[in-house]
Amino acid sequence: xxxxxxxxxxxxxxxxxxxxxxxxxxxxxxxxxxxxxxxxxxxxxxxxxxxxxxxxxxxxxxxxxxxxxxxxxxxxxxxxxxxxxxxxxxxxxxxxxxxxxxxxxxxxxxxxxxxxxxxxxxxxxxxxxxxxxxxxxxxxxxxxxxxxxxxxxxxxxxxx
Length: 160
What we know:
The chain has nine helices and two strands, in the order H-H-H-H-H-H-E-E-H-H-H.
């Protein structure tokens, strides 16, 4: 996608988000056909529309997470010095709130602690899922690199 097209797409994402909220699948469904009419018709004909939609949703999520505006982290940190060190260390400008089914900017999370609680619980649950998957990969690696003919039993022992 050319830079001008990327900018136009991001602008359209924010227009639709202002109407539908920061729900990436809803936004993607709303703008995909208009933003990429030829690509969508070709993907539909080739049976790849679902894969295209997945990619568009991913890009919408990236846009929602990385918005640069007057509500950015640094600006909010200037307003409340006590939060500055905590905000500075965060890796994103917004986080997914499961109950709202959308990404919410940090200043809004701070203003509504129940949303912040939801966002942190969601992030922690995803982190636990990642650690569990890493454990399964560790077990697979141990089995693959082992010279032991009974290595297929190793995964249960590692995870226990």
